[in-house]
Amino acid sequence: MTDPASLIPHRAPFLLLDDVTSLEPGVRAAGTWRLTGEEAFFAGHFPGRPTLPGVLMVEAIAQAGATLLMTEIPNRGEMLTVFTGIERAKFRKLVVPGDQLRIEVNVIVWRTTAVKMEGKITVDGVTVCEATVTCRLVNLKKVESEEVAAAK
Length: 152
Hints:
This protein is an alpha+beta fold. Helix content is 19%, strand content 40%.
């Protein structure tokens, strides 16, 4: 098992992976996320019937994919993985406090700075979410210099 924070820049409260359980560079990755019920979003989504928002499941898929992409980048401290697309997202079952999500991603297309992946989340072996996501790498220094130039 690998701490996802050693691979991606996400941190609490927006790190949606507890661990990376398997990683096959350029091919697939898997991880887990246990919902304790203490997560802030449950208070408002929905009062009296806490349910994991679907958009956070898609984000968990993207974060699992980012761990896969970042393992191949030697200068990952200078890079950031960003969403460029979400396709065919499907939500099959409600996810609630106490559930442990297993997040799996499989590469469809791999390029040096971008990847397209199929993601699936299961709880107790039952599929609760599926989505195809695309992500790309951006250089943080380049982004910062573009932001400075745009502000002038």
